[in-house]
Amino acid sequence: MQQLLGDLSYVRVYLDDVQVLSHSSDEHMRHLEVVFGRLLDAGLIYLGFLVTAEGKRLLAKKVDAILRLSKPRNIRDLRRFIGMINYYKDMWKGRSETLAPLTALTSIKRPF
């Protein structure tokens, strides 16, 4: 972050935190445009998502990791799988309906 934004007098960087300092709302918007422009150009990855001008996208390596998982052999494996894909819940419309049959299998009342 320091290498990417350190030359901007209105930016303070501490590890991976960025603080943008401005005197007015208009100035702040201009500063944010510069900062976000640099972050986008650098291919910012935030909490496992690639941030672009269009929004956030899944990282291909994360999707590949999910696709390579072996078939769950027990409830613990199934819960792990559901937890892993639930991290991306905002990216998946109808997720709860799709996962309902798998979630039902995690109940101790149902045999796996």
Automatic annotation (TrEMBL):
<dbReference type="InterPro" id="IPR043128">
    <property type="entry name" value="Rev_trsase/Diguanyl_cyclase"/>
</dbReference>
<protein>
    <submittedName>
        <fullName>Retrotransposon nucleocapsid protein</fullName>
    </submittedName>
</protein>
<dbReference type="InterPro" id="IPR051320">
    <property type="entry name" value="Viral_Replic_Matur_Polypro"/>
</dbReference>
<dbReference type="InterPro" id="IPR043502">
    <property type="entry name" value="DNA/RNA_pol_sf"/>
</dbReference>
